[in-house]
């Protein structure tokens, strides 16, 4: 039996998922919602367009996928979980500890799935966190200035970038998420995997680099067992180059990773699942 899927959001990632899900026999689209319904006209069959998100229950989805904005999880996350499994594509929402607690409490009948997206090595980091051997984690994201959607002072700082890279932010991931809710989902996934550190202890660095016209770069640095003060500890650094066009918030390789998460969100039952 095919799994019934609803998509919330129809940006580049939502469009990709719509196209890929239509090709499959194991998944069935039952609705697509977008804040601007006009963006769906001519692209999505009328019978699949959900004009009012509050009517999602009528479509009887098994899995609801958010690829829109963190505010969707804030407004609808616990309600979605009363009726279906829920996959969060914007985990920056979970920097709000009260919201995370509310979602975990709501995931008693259905599963809450959190995608890792462009975050590399998440399963290994989660295992270290489970054992309490993860001591520190830093994620550095570097993108072209046109690839950022920002708020506050770092938005103004990004507008001043000309020929040389500028570090827009360095500090806790929890402090960065509200400033770049669409750009640092990778960091949010890192903070969730590194649960013994969390959003306030996992460090994030955001760099605006005008030379990156073809790539997004994500660097993950991990400190594990040993004496970290004496620099005698386990250390691992990975560098991921994700192809991305100018102005693209999400790199192209992340799309395939997200689809894999969707296909893996099956049969895990209630609770919270990183995928």
From TrEMBL:
<dbReference type="GO" id="GO:0033735">
    <property type="term" value="F:aspartate dehydrogenase [NAD(P)+] activity"/>
</dbReference>
<dbReference type="InterPro" id="IPR036291">
    <property type="entry name" value="NAD(P)-bd_dom_sf"/>
</dbReference>
<dbReference type="InterPro" id="IPR002811">
    <property type="entry name" value="Asp_DH"/>
</dbReference>
<dbReference type="InterPro" id="IPR005106">
    <property type="entry name" value="Asp/hSer_DH_NAD-bd"/>
</dbReference>
<dbReference type="Pfam" id="PF03447">
    <property type="entry name" value="NAD_binding_3"/>
</dbReference>
<feature type="domain" description="Aspartate/homoserine dehydrogenase NAD-binding">
    <location>
        <begin position="9"/>
        <end position="114"/>
    </location>
</feature>
<comment type="similarity">
    <text>Belongs to the L-aspartate dehydrogenase family.</text>
</comment>
<dbReference type="Pfam" id="PF01958">
    <property type="entry name" value="Asp_DH_C"/>
</dbReference>
<protein>
    <recommendedName>
        <fullName>Aspartate dehydrogenase domain-containing protein</fullName>
    </recommendedName>
</protein>
<feature type="domain" description="Aspartate dehydrogenase">
    <location>
        <begin position="163"/>
        <end position="254"/>
    </location>
</feature>
<dbReference type="GO" id="GO:0050661">
    <property type="term" value="F:NADP binding"/>
</dbReference>
<dbReference type="GO" id="GO:0009435">
    <property type="term" value="P:NAD+ biosynthetic process"/>
</dbReference>
